[in-house]
Design brief:
This protein has about 260 residues and is mostly helical. The protein is built from nine helices and two strands.
Length: about 260
């Protein structure tokens, strides 16, 4: 049986069929594009909500850092002025019970921000004020982290701690690092350590039951703590500035509807 081509259709009918097919394919592309745009907006919204939560976590961390650093600043300033300008003797027993040798550093939570950069969320933010706030905040957060981990950390480990070892006896460090106000979490890791610590208390007392009265040594200790507190103050100033920018950024994100 021979196949025959239907030649009964008019050119206009062919054109209409082609047009309908073209429109169907085009509408499919349009619908897919609309779906993709909706998904991108949804993902961008989810990303910005997650980013807001990261900023809020940074705020909680900054609150704690500022509080702890402020306490250290007050104490270190007091030490520096008391023994540096008043020439008062330094009681090692009392000093070892009070001194806090912890260093408190800021670490920026930026996983969400890095994801926003990699998937193009930042390019899709049409609100330039919001975008500027986000980028400015991240720049300041990176600066705060760098100041804490590099500048302050470098001074602490490479200058301050070696200087302390030159001035104070071994028993002093044992007492400071056992201080339950700051080291309780580490002390309880080994139940036998407290017994060992108490049994050797009389040995440490030989180092600690002394007064440092030498004016030159007191002046040296005063300068050590003055340098240390200067780094803490600079970091704390950066933390305060970052905290202010974070507060404004969170407010802007909430006003734009980026809430849970």
């Amino acid at each position: 049986m021979e196949s025959r081509i239907n030649t009964s259709k008019k050119p206009k009918e062919y054109f209409l069929e082609f047009l309908m097919l073209f429109l169907a394919v085009s509408m499919g592309f349009v619908a897919e594009n609309i779906r993709e745009q909706i998904n991108e907006k949804r993902r961008a919204h989810e990303m910005l909500v997650a980013f807001r939560k990261d900023v809020e976590q940074n705020q909680f961390l900054l609150d704690s850092l500022i509080e702890r650093n402020t306490a250290q600043i007050h104490y270190f300033d007091s030490v520096s002025h008391t023994i540096g300008f008043n020439d008062q003797p330094l009681d090692l027993q009392k000093f070892s019970a009070e001194l806090n040798l912890w260093i408190y550093r800021f670490m920026n939570r930026k996983n969400t921000f890095e994801q926003m950069k990699s998937v193009g969320t930042l390019r899709n933010i049409n609100d330039f004020n919001l975008l500027d706030q986000i980028l400015t905040y991240e720049q300041m957060a990176d600066l705060a982290e760098m100041r804490a981990t590099q500048f302050e950390g470098d001074h602490y480990w490479n200058q301050f701690r070696p200087q302390l070892r030159e001035v104070f006896p071994s028993g002093f460090f044992v007492e400071v690092l056992h201080n339950p106000k700051y080291m309780q979490a580490l002390n309880v890791l080994n139940a036998d350590y407290e017994k060992f610590y108490q049994e050797h208390a009389h040995i440490r007392d030989r180092d600690l039951q002394k007064l440092i009265t030498d004016p030159e040594k007191l002046d040296w200790i005063s300068k050590m703590f003055h340098e240390r507190v200067t780094f803490i103050k600079l970091s704390t100033m950066t933390y305060n500035t970052l905290h202010g920018k974070g507060e404004k950024l969170i407010q802007t994100l909430k006003e734009k509807g980026y809430e849970d």
